[in-house]
């Protein structure tokens, strides 16, 4: 009697690799990591979060006279200008320094070698920037309203203006921050390389010194960069029609504000695509 030949069992098909979460979900998770890391770094918090608040308290307490025969006080002018500076600090300065540090310590190199989409890293950074900028604006406005008689607009059109100036300004500043993150040669030099030009830009962009007290050639330089136009847009929201008399042209030029900020969004994106690197210079 012959033994029955049994057919070998069919091999089970290989298990499909686990599906990764979406880039948005990974970016949201990364945003939590980025936010915790940001608030643990005291120097980052001081320069991007507390710095404009401290300056508002100092300048607002020292200068309280009315300006140019208007009902606007110097402290109200500083509040509007420092909102623009705070938004740019939270985006341009925060991203520029943070990405330079990530590149220097190898974080970017490790992330680029994982299956996680590269976009998730930037989504996390952008969400962290939006949170810090929102908190910055809220605290500056709270101080301005409580201590310096800043009046929140009741006109929805002015709030709409605030929204598009905020979105265009933080987008342009974030893209520029990503682009300049490649300039520092190391993490140690990142703060000096990125913070110093930003501080200078604040002094020539109408944040601390009114344009009427600046030489024309400095006004021309500041008009090339987005901070001047961000502050001008925010002044239109929080100072109203009476504050327009303090502008160089006697008007807020909101159409030009939108045009310049939109141009910097396009230009900043082009700079990012041309200059961004995942590896540090010593890695080639």
Textual characterization of the structure:
This protein has 284 residues and is mainly alpha-helical. It has one domain. The protein is built from 10 helices and no strands. α6 packs antiparallel against α9. The longest helix is centred in the first third of the chain and has 31 residues. The radius of gyration is 24 Å and the shape is elongated. The model has no long low-confidence stretch (mean pLDDT 85).
Write the layout of secondary structure elements.
Blueprint lengths: L22 H18 L1 H21 L11 H31 L2 H6 L5 H31 L7 H25 L6 H18 L11 H7 L3 H13 L15 H22 L9
Helix pairs in contact: 1-5, 2-3, 2-5, 3-5, 3-6, 3-7, 3-9, 6-9, 6-10, 9-10
Number of helices: 10
Number of domain modules: 1
By secondary-structure content and strand pairing, the structural class works out as: mainly alpha
* Rg measurement, Å: 24 Å
Number of strands: 0
Q: Quote the distance from N terminus to C terminus.
A: 74 Å
The proportion of residues in beta strands is under 5%
Taking pLDDT < 50 over at least 5 consecutive residues as the criterion, the unreliable ranges are none
Main beta sheet: none
- Write down the overall mean pLDDT: 85
Run of helices and strands = HHHHHHHHHH
Shape: elongated
Helix proportion: 55-70%
Subcellular location: Cell membrane; Membrane
Transmembrane segments: 44-64, 76-101, 122-147, 159-180, 192-211, 257-276
Membrane topology: Multi-pass membrane protein
InterPro entries: ABC2_TM, ABC2_TM_bact-type, ABC_2_transport, Nod_factor_ABC_transporter
């Amino acid at each position: 009697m012959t033994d029955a030949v049994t057919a070998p069992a069919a091999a089970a098909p290989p298990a499909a690799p686990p599906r990764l979460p979406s880039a948005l979900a990974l970016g949201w998770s990364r945003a939590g990591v980025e936010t915790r890391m940001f608030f643990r770094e005291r120097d980052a918090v001081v320069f991007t979060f507390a710095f404009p608040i401290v300056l508002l308290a100092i300048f607002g307490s020292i200068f309280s006279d009315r300006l140019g025969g208007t009902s606007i006080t110097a402290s109200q002018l500083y509040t509007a200008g420092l909102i623009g500076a705070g938004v740019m600090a939270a985006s341009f300065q925060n991203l520029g320094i943070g990405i330079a540090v990530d590149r220097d310590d190898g974080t970017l190199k490790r992330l680029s070698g994982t299956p996680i989409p590269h976009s998730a890293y930037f989504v996390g950074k952008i969400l962290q920037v939006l949170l810090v900028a929102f908190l910055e604006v809220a605290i500056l406005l709270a101080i301005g309203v409580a201590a310096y008689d800043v009046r929140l607009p009741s006109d929805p059109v002015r709030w709409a203006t605030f929204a598009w100036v905020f979105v265009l300004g933080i987008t342009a500043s974030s893209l520029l921050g990503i682009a300049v993150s490649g300039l520092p040669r190391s993490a140690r030099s990142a703060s000096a390389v990125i913070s110093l030009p930003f501080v200078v830009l604040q002094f020539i962009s109408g944040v601390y010194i009114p344009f009427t007290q600046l030489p024309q050639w400095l006004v021309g330089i500041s008009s090339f960069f987005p901070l001047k136009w961000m502050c001008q847009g925010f002044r239109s929201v929080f100072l109203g029609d009476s504050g327009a008399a303090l502008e160089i042209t006697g008007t807020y030029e909101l159409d030009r504000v939108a045009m310049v900020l939109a141009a910097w969004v396009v230009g900043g994106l082009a700079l990012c695509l041309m200059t961004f690197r995942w590896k540090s210079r010593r890695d080639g």
